[in-house]
């Protein structure tokens, strides 16, 4: 995949295996537009690279009728030899534009009809649209970092882009249809014709009409309007996440890294809530500090509510002992995302390890409120400076690249790699790929093809196996220094178990191309890996046998307990 309008440094690099001296020619085809030019391959290790400028080589029509994207055919010619590939190209400048249109042509005019002279920031729809727009900015920033600058902070940029694009289309078009009778058509005639030619989008008009019914600005503006905004936001998210199910279906199945993508989506939503809450809820400024703290941070059943309830005015009594804005946003958004993930799992569109796709330990807000030391870990996982604390109303910290230690020393500290000579370690270290893994994120997924192994440099990982009936059997944990994935590397078989980090981990990935020459030169290293594999298989068989015995005993006890 690639982007147009992605800012400075935007380029698309294609790797090739070439034979012959050329001449070399590249042709790009977008619709009826054909571009052809010569090029000089860039040597990259044993392969060669073709650097394309998306804003030039992929220029074309990325408007609404094309859903802000194009499929580009790239054909490379080397003398008489020809090969080709296809790329999905998205216009980042267009994505999010439909939400902006809704603010300008729905929220602002409706505010003036209800409360002339007041800011549209009072409208019950404003918080979710503002926070949603900022969340989209965070996704865009992360996508550019991964696709353009190769930062590798996202598990699957392509799938995330497709889901986000389809979600924007269905949500925005649902709103367009819901408000059409009151406000007229928000689409141009050309856009309307394109929309009516699509038969794959599921538009929930009735759901969005219910949300439109919650647009009333409540009086007094400083108290009851907060609750009106909250009610509208929750209903908006409910319908929005029904659209999300259909967006996932259109984006296609992802059984290998959808869960890790889900973690990032959830944390970026939390970041957007923290950053934009003061702008989304200007009513908070008029509240006393103690009451404002309760509205934002209170946890149901916690102490500290009584002082706030003594503050004059109707809001304390209306609030009662319920979660504040941040806790309720975290809990309800997490529950909604887990509901969508469970639905997608039943449909064969997503998969996840554990009982929940988004467990509590991946939440920034949960960490901030209950375990602040985890905040730095989660920030670093997503490519943000871990030294900056989370603050309400503050923008994100700058991008962050974790400092790499002595990779060779880390590899030498593992039992298997300790057999290598310093020069062999250095050769592996130069090509090993460092991966920062977040809490509950999977490193290896059972059944997935794999031709690399992983060395755990920091942290602890857990291993489990999924039976044919869907139940999971824990196979224990692996500490720092463990080598993972050697079975697939040695045998070529799919991954035999799933491995995920407990509280985050730093691992180094070593690919087959880097490792095979070392194995060929050092037979004793292959023997050591084979022994480790045999021990791993023996432990796995024992765990499965113990699990089967436990299940049989449970079934027998259940039968004996029957009258």
Descriptive keywords:
Jelly Rolls, globular, Immunoglobulin-like, 563 residues, RmlC-like_jellyroll, 3 domains
Instruction: Count the DSSP helices.
Output: 19
The helix content, as a percent range, equals: 40-55%
Beginning-to-end CA distance, first to last residue: 62 Å
What proportion strand?
Answer: 15-25%
Radius of gyration: 27 Å
What is the number of independent domains?
3
Shape annotation: globular
Number of strands: 14
Question: What integer is the average pLDDT?
Answer: 84
Class from secondary-structure proportions: alpha+beta
**pLDDT below 50 for ≥5 consecutive residues: which ranges?**
308-312
* Major sheet description: 6 strands, antiparallel
Organism: Solirubrobacter phytolaccae
InterPro entries: cNMP-bd_CS, cNMP-bd_dom, cNMP-bd_dom_sf, Env_Response_Regulators, RmlC-like_jellyroll
Protein name: Cyclic nucleotide-binding domain-containing protein
GO molecular function: DNA-binding transcription factor activity
């Amino acid at each position: 995949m690639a982007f147009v309008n992605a800012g400075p440094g935007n380029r698309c690099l294609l790797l090739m295996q070439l034979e012959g001296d050329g001449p070399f020619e590249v042709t790009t085809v977008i619709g009826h537009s054909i571009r052809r030019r010569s090029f000089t391959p860039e040597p990259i290790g044993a392969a060669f690279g073709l650097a394309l400028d998306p804003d030039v080589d992929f220029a074309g029509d990325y408007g609404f009728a094309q859903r802000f994207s194009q499929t580009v055919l790239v054909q490379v010619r080397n003398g008489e030899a020809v090969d080709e590939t296809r790329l999905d190209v998205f216009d980042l400048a267009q994505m999010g534009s439909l939400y902006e249109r809704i603010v300008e042509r729905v929220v602002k005019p409706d505010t003036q009809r209800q409360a002339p002279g007041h800011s549209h920031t009072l409208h019950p729809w404003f918080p979710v649209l503002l926070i949603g727009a900022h969340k989209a900015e965070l996704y865009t920033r992360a996508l550019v970092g991964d696709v353009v600058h190769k930062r590798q902070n996202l598990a699957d940029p392509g799938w995330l882009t497709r889901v986000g694009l389809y979600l924007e289309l269905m949500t925005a078009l649902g709103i367009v249809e819901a408000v059409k009778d009151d406000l007229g058509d928000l689409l141009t005639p050309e856009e309307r014709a394109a929309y009516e030619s699509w038969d794959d989008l599921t538009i929930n008009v009735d759901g969005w009409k219910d949300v439109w019914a919650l647009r009333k600005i409540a009086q007094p503006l400083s108290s009851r309007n907060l609750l009106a905004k909250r009610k509208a936001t929750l209903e908006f998210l409910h319908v929005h996440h029904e659209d999300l199910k259909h967006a996932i279906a259109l984006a296609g199945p992802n059984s290998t890294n959808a869960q890790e993508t889900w973690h990032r989506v959830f944390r970026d939503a939390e970041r957007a809530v923290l950053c934009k809450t003061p702008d989304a809820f200007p009513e908070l400024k008029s509240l006393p500090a103690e009451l404002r703290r309760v509205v934002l941070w209170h946890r149901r059943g916690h102490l500290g509510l009584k002082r706030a309830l003594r503050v004059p005015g109707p809001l304390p009594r209306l609030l009662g002992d319920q979660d504040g804005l941040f806790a309720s946003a975290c809990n309800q958004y997490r529950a909604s995302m887990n509901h969508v993930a469970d639905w997608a799992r039943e449909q064969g569109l997503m998969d996840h390890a554990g009982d929940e796709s988004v467990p509590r330990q991946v939440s920034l807000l949960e960490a901030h409120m209950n375990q602040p030391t985890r905040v730095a870990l989660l920030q670093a996982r997503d490519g943000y400076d871990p030294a900056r604390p989370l603050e309400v109303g503050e923008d994100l910290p700058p991008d962050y690249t974790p400092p790499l230690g002595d990779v060779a020393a880390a590899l030498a500290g593992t039992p298997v790699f300790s057999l290598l000579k310093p020069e062999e370690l250095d050769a592996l270290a130069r090509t090993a790929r460092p991966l920062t893994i977040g809490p509950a994120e999977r490193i290896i997924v059972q059944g997935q093809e794999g031709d690399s192994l992983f060395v755990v440099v920091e942290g602890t990982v857990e291993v489990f196996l999924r039976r044919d009936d869907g139940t999971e059997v824990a196979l224990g944990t692996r500490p720092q220094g463990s080598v993972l994935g050697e079975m697939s590397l040695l045998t070529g078989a799919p991954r035999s178990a799933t491995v995920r980090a407990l509280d985050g981990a730093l691992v180094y990935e070593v690919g087959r191309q880097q490792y095979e020459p070392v194995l060929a030169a050092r037979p004793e290293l292959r023997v050591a890996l084979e022994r480790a594999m045999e021990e791993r298989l023996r432990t796995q068989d024992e765990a499965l046998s113990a699990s089967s015995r436990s299940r049989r005993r449970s079934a027998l006890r259940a039968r004996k307990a029957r009258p």
